[in-house]
Structure formats: structure tokens, C-alpha cells
Amino acid sequence: MEIFSLTLITTFLAATVRMATPIALAGLGETISERAGISNLGVEAIMLSGSYFSFWAMFQYSNPLFGLLFGILGGIAVSLLHAWLSIYCKADQTIAGLALNFLILGLTSFLFLMQFGQTTTLPSIQTIGRMEIPLLSKIPVIGQAFFNQDPFVYMLLLFVVLILVLFYKTEWGVILKAVGENPRSADTAGLNVKKVRYTAAIANGLLGGLGGAYLSTVKLGFFQENLTSGKGYIALVAVILGRRNPVGVLAAALVIGSAEALQIRLQTLGSNIPSQLFAMFPYLVTILVLLFSIGKSHDPAALGVPYERDKR
Amino acid sequence: MNRSTRNAISLVAVGVFVLVVSLLLIAMVGSSIPKALSSFLRGIVGSTYSIGEVLVRATPLILAALGVSVGFRTGFLNIGAEGQIYLGAIAVTWLGMTFPNLPPVLMITFALILGFLAGGFWSVVPGILKAKFGLSEIINTIMLNYIAINLVGILVRTSLKDPTYPYPMSPILPESTYFPMLLLPTRLHAGLILALVCAALVYLLMFRTSTGFCMRAVGLNKRASICSGISVTGHVVLSSLISGGLAGLAGVSEIAGLHHRLIEGISPSYGYLAIVVSLLGKNHPFLIILSALGIAALQVGSMAMQRSSGVPTSIASIIMGLLVIMILARKQLFGCKEE
Fold it and tell me: How many domains does chain B have?
């Protein structure tokens, strides 16, 4: 068995990165949203909407930029609806997210069937290919895994850096945190709580929409009912495991992605170990991490609590 | 305008809105609306078989939603009914395979107890983590869903696998585990009676005992409960146990009444639907029966509608999502405050 040969490690790493990308993108979006105090269980819906509309646009216009744009718009539409329910209607954010998951699951498969009908061959699109970055891709082992990938992976790395700077080096990061920890104080200090929360929701829709678009336009090249099949919930797990830190979320997504990649590798090797054992692994790790962090809560204090200005 | 008329008007408005959207969707596919509606109705009440199908679907929904509602009442948001259903299913399968010679009465009794405990265990863990350490139950129950689903995947390939069959499934269980059938030739089984009995028991527990009163008090106001000497931790843990236990019974009922063997995917999102059912039923046991019947009818009817008028079944999911969203938005849109 040459499981540990260098080329195999590189292909395994590359597969891990590809599995992790959609989860990390959506996880980063949810991180921003949760930091502002909005817990959106509808990441699944955001991703599904993003993947459907990007597929639709790619099919219509066969232009990757349109695919990207519509994926983002599809994601933002869902996250804004959630934000409207949570901020204006002061609804239970968890239930609102769950309802959106049902609505978008139904809506995307309804629209898909209406447009393409019941066919035996899935309508497909040309997937977005790889772009090798010169020099960086020559780094041994990780070069090929990180720098000979599709544009989404580079976008992800860019977003991680961008959000890192935003969170810890700009005033915007402080404002975001203030709104999530204590909206009343933030309001008293003259910050517009609603505006910050809506902005965070838009960021969530943008990133989640991209994550969804990745699945249909890069990974698969087609759309089908319930394409995301739980990826959104897994992104929520990545947020917790990564402790709402952009680098942490990326690392968590890589752990989850590696479990998935390992699962596929084992299946192709025809191993007797049920691959579900590895699928379980990230969740067990997350629960263990949560157990070890007992007593040091990392949740924003106002997470999931609607802000009512005129309430005592 | 007083509060109750405003409330009634808003409910009617929500109903009309959802109905109009559904009709528009049917029209968009190009099907004739009267034909689609009549096939929808015939799919629900057209024959004994179709009525049986609605009741068969409502059974796990009632049980799991009762569980969700008990958790909701103390503020324990149980998103993990899906996983707890699978744990109940594993329990009854293990019992049937390990002790195939138990007489039916003992077998069913043990299956119910074991299923309740297995589902309860899957929910009491996040319950304790929430009550004692303040960890969010939402994310923990979601993770336990995935662990449970993968656990079923492992078990039907290893220790609970039918060795004579190449597919991942358990052997057919001994007949002593079967629930009695109620209305042959439909698939209706005694799980429905179990669900109705549980609804009555949950009603008695929540509204006629002091434990139930304390649970509701904890859900309404933690601080006031502490001040009046009610143990918040204890009641949250207890409600999480009952919550998962009832979902576990749903899993037992699906195996013992319907599938008679453990396979992957026995629950097509019943656990998540249960949350919708519980919400529409306002967390009240008797209203939950009604809302479970409604959701089950919606699903069964939409399948008939797809067969005869080509309207995709996903319309059921759209209607459900829209209904919950409108109900969430109702208070603000129509200015009616919750009681």
C-alpha cells in the first residue's frame, strides 16, 4: 500500500480543499452574520438558492460571470428574507431559517422541473475549470493542492484574509462585535443596529450563495433536487468548530473536507471499513471541542435575540 | 378592532395568501386548477387506502412533534428529532434481532421502553449540556442527527446486517415485533393509537401535573422560576429526555408498524417536519394531531396531484415553508401581539 506516497498526499490534499471550499465559504458568511447577533439556520437554503440560480444563469448565458452573479443574488435574496423576518418581524431566527430551508428546497426543485421537465439526461453545463497560479503552484505538496485549483478556492483564500483584516483591524469589526454582544449599548453609542445586521445578512447571502454556486458550477455541472443535501448544516458546524474566526472556520472546513475526501478514497479502494465512520468523525471532533470549551462561552451575547429598541 | 378579531383576520389572510400562491404555482406548470385540486382531494380522501396513507404518514409526525413541543415548552429547541427517530429504530431492531423468541406482549413493551430510552438518550445529552453548561442545543442536536444517520449506515453494514442479502439492511424482524394492523388492506397500524395515547399523556403531563406546570414556567420565565424555587436545570433536562423519547417512539413505530426491518432513510425528514408540525400546532398536543394530519394530507395529496396533473410534489415543501414564514411574520404585519 502506498497511501503515503507524495503524489497521493497531494491529490488527497487537493480533494480536501475542493470538499472544504463550499463549506468554508458558507461558514464565513454565517460567521459574519452570527457576530452581528443573527443566527441563521437557513444556510442550507442560501446555498441551495445560490446553486440553482448560478446553474440557471450558466445554462442561459453560458457565461461564468453571470453564473457567479446570479448565485450571489440568489443567496442574498434568501438571507435578506431571513434578516427581514428576524429584524423587522422579530421572529424566532432558528424557526425562520428552518422554514426557509423548506421553502427553498421546494422552490428550487419546482422551478427546475418547470424549466427542464422530467428528463432522463440531466441538463448540464460546462464546469468552471482550474487556473494554475504560476510559481505558487510549484511549492511542494501544498502548491498543487491550493494553487492549481478553480477560481473559487482563490476567492475563498482572499475572503479569509479580507474578513480577518475586517474583524480584527478595522472599525467595522468592532462595530459588528458591538452589535452582536450588546445592541443596546451599540444603539446608544449612535450605531445603526438594523443597518449593521442587514449588512451582515447580505454578506452571509453573498458568501453562502458563492458556496452553493461552487457545487453546481464547479463540482457537478448540473442541478438536481436537494443538491446541497445538508452542506448548509455542515457549514454551521464549521462555524462552531472554527469558533467564529475566519482562519478557524477555514481550518474546520478543511477537517470536515478531509473526512469527506477520505471517505471517497476508501470507497474507491473497496475497503471493508464502512465509510460512514469517517463521515461521523468531524461531528465527534466538534462535540469534543465543545466539551473542552465548557465554561468559556464564545457565543455573542445577543445571538438570536431580536433587538427591540423601545423595550426596557 | 379588538385583539381576537385582528388575530382571526390575520390567520384568514395568511391562509388566503398561501392558497393563492399555491394556485398560481399550479397554473404556472400549465395544469388545470380544478383537475389538480380534485386529484389532490381524491389523493387524501378518495378511497380507504388514501385515508390510510394519510394516517400512516401522520403517525410519526404526531409522535415526533409531541416530543418537539415538550422541549419547546421549556425553551429546549430540539432540532434533533430526526436523529432520535433513528435511535428508536435502532433500538427496536437490535431488540428483535437479539431476543427473537420473546412473546409479542413483552417484545412490544420492551421495544417501546427501549426506543423511548434510546431516543431520550440522544436528546438528554444536549439537554444536559444546555442546562448545566449553557451550550447551544441547536448545533448539538443537528450534529447528533448526522452521527445517528451515519450510525445507522454503519450498523446496517456490520452488526445488524442481513448476511443473506448483499444490500445494507437488517434482516426482517420476527413477527412478535409487529404492531397490529388496523384497517386492512391499508398500511394503517397501531402506531396511530400509540400516537393518540401519547398525545393524551403529554396533555395530562403538561397541563394537569405540577411537573408540567414547572416546565412551562421554566420556558416562560427562567428568572421567575429560579426565584420561586423551581429547578431550571432539572426541568430542562427532564423535558429534553421526554422530547427525544417521544421521537424515539416514532422510530419504533416506523419499524414495528411499517418497515419491519432497519434500512437507511426510513425517515424522509420527519424530524424536521415535526418542528413545523409542532409550531403550527402551537405546541399543544391536540392541535398537534390536527396539524400533523394537515401536513400528512398535504404531502400525500401532492403526490396524487403529481401523478395525475404533473404538478411537482415539491409544491408541498413550498406551501409548508411559506405557511411558517407567514405565521412568523403575522404578528408584525397585522399588529397582533402574542398572548
Answer: 2
B303 touches chain A (CB under 8 A): no
For A139-180, the DSSP string reads STTHHHHHHEE-HHHHHHHHHHHHHHHHHHHSHHHHHHHHHH
Determine the Cα–Cα distance for residues A227 and A219; give it in Å rounded to an integer.
Answer: 11
The reply to whether B320 and B260 lie within a common domain is: no
Give me the domain span that covers residue B324: 1-31+311-339
Q: Which domain holds residue A108?
A: 20-292
CA–CA separation, B88 vs A178, rounded Å? 44
Using a CB-CB cut-off of 8 Å, the residues of chain A touching B319 are 106
User: What's the gap in Å between the CA of A113 and the closest CA on chain B?
Assistant: 7
Using DSSP's 3-state secondary structure scheme, residue B282 falls into coil
Residue B40, in any domain of the structure: no
- Whether residue B338 lies within 8 A of chain A, CB to CB, comes out as no
Q: Give, for B4, the enclosing helix (H) or strand (E).
A: helix B3-29
Cα B42 from chain centre: 25
Compute the nearest-CA separation of B26 from chain A (Å). Answer: 10
Best of B21, B122, B328 to substitute, by most chain A Cβ atoms within 10 angstroms, is: B328
Q: Residues B38-96: pLDDT tens digits?
A: 999 999 998 999 999 999 999 999 999 999 999 999 999 999 999 999 999 999 999 99
The structural domain count of chain A equals 1
Same domain, B180 and B294: yes
B28: closest chain A residue by CA: A114
Cβ contact A101–B272 (<8 Å): yes
Q: Above 0.95 for ipTM, yes or no? A: no
Give the whole-angstrom CA distance, residue B309 versus residue B33: 9
Q: Determine, yes or no, domain membership for A260.
A: yes
Q: Which pLDDT score is estimated for A122? A: 76
Q: Is A311 exposed, middle or buried (0-12, 13-18, 19+ CB in 10 A)?
A: exposed
Q: Is B60 exposed, middle or buried (CB count within 10 Å of its CB: 0-12, 13-18, 19+)?
A: buried
Same domain as B220, residue B129: yes
Q: Which residues in chain B are closer than 8 Å to A80, comparing Cβ atoms?
A: none
Quick check: is A305 in a domain? no
| Residue among B133, B312, B332 minimizing CB distance to A109 | B312
The verdict on residue B222 lying in a domain is yes
Q: How many CB atoms lie within 10 A of CB B197?
A: 10
Give the per-residue pLDDT at A295. 67
B178 lies in the same domain as B316: no
* B residues 9-38 closer than 8 Å to A (CB): 25, 28-29
Top residue of A80, A95, A233 to mutate, by most chain B CBs within 10 Å, is A95
| CATH number of the domain enclosing A171 | 1.10.3470
Do the domain assignments include residue A44? yes
Q: Chain A residue closest to B125 (CA)? A: A287
Question: Per mean pLDDT, which range of A215-224, A284-293, B47-56, B170-179 is the poorest?
Answer: A284-293
Q: Is residue B232 part of a domain?
A: yes
Q: Is residue B306 part of a domain?
A: no
